[in-house]
């Protein structure tokens, strides 16, 4: 990876992501390959019915929608993936996450690749933990908030978690392999 790999100005990404909103998410839920759609609650993947994929049901059940490899289903995001792969000289995957208010989709975890999170709407609170946590106690981090068009880089193997408060969150995760 280039030394300037994360010297990205998120404003350069806006033309690729500005049309992604809740309507987009729910339309993609209906159109996407079902292997690319996950509903997650407190770290568990849930079974679902297509009629469950509406804002009221998702919000009432506090479920996170994950649209994996969204760039394979959208020509604009495919162009964004190609741009990032050229810039970073790495393989890139794009996943889209919608989390309703007062919810946590995934448990505290780490990823086996670098990730760049771009907040698209709403806000999400993120906690980053020291690498040497072995006790299972994750109270050593203070949450910080990502708002629209802010981004966060999380390096491979860094323990992290995220949750929403009063607002929903819609964010794009760029996995850098």
Structure description:
The protein is of the alpha+beta class and 177 residues long. It has a domain at 1-108: Sandwich (Jelly Rolls), CATH 2.60.120.650. The protein has four helices and ten strands; from the N terminus they run ααββαβαβββββββ. It has helices at residues 14-17, 22-31, 55-60, 75-88; strands at residues 37-41, 44-46, 64-67, 92-99, 114-122, 124-128, 144-146, 151-154, 160-163, 169-176. A hairpin with a 2-residue loop joins strand 1 and strand 2 (44-46).
Topology:
Elements: H1 14-17, H2 22-31, E1 37-41, E2 44-46, H3 55-60, E3 64-67, H4 75-88, E4 92-99, E5 114-122, E6 124-128, E7 144-146, E8 151-154, E9 160-163, E10 169-176
Antiparallel strand pairs: 1-2, 1-3, 3-4, 4-10, 5-8, 5-10, 6-7, 6-9
